Give the backbone structure.
Amino acid sequence: MAKSDYNRKGKSSNRTTSGDKRKQYSKNYNPTRKKAAPPKNSNPNEMRLNRYVANAGICSRREADTYIAAGNVSVNGKVITEMGYKVQLTDDVRFDGRKLNPEKKEYILLNKPKNFITTTNDEKGRRTVMELVSSASKSRLLPVGRLDRNTTGLLLFTNDGDLTKKLTHPTHGVRKIYHVHLDKNLTLADLRKIEEGLELEDGKVQVDDVSYIQGAPKKEVGIEIHSGRNRIVRRIFEHLDYHVTKLDRVIFAGLTKKDLPRGHWRHLTEQEVINLKIIK
């Protein structure tokens, strides 16, 4: 091979003296060039029917194909059995006659720090919990229940309206456990009063359980309650002339703070969502 056929690094150049070989390829031919991917559908208001059904929480996308083929799904009053059928978000899509919502259900658990209020916005410009989960989802998530500004701990966010109603209604007895710090030791007599139930200004309140924190001073108490009344834990102790210096929700509906630092959030696991939905 001629010396000119090598580049400066000593590697063979791409030059060839064969005119016949050069003619075999077009001028713009590149053997390493990948084929261009087909353009994706960029219409944000359109999606495949199986995805629409899956997002509504009926089943997985694969199972949705089976239901569609079986004639369980209708679009604008017409039964659709075609695979790959696309619908508009404004279409009336029904599964066995029930209208579906195509928004994918999402569930975010936050370990709330102090000095954030539980509201979607605040006229006074105070910081809200929505700031803490702003990057969690593009969907509009709302807090399930509320925690006071100075109360820390678990707060759930979701766009699942049915689950929110279930978790906030007292008849379902959703389990909530708080770690309470008081300004002075809780006497055994007052602990017994809380166990038996207290008559507050808005009616009697019954706790599920209350006890001292093992290995901690008597001013630290664990209390389990399912009432959703405003500031109920603080009012229980204020009624007995105690001041709550710190209040932390450590368990909510079976969810815990394990591996979730203060001020951080995470998505619920599939099993955790299932557990929440089977609460009666």
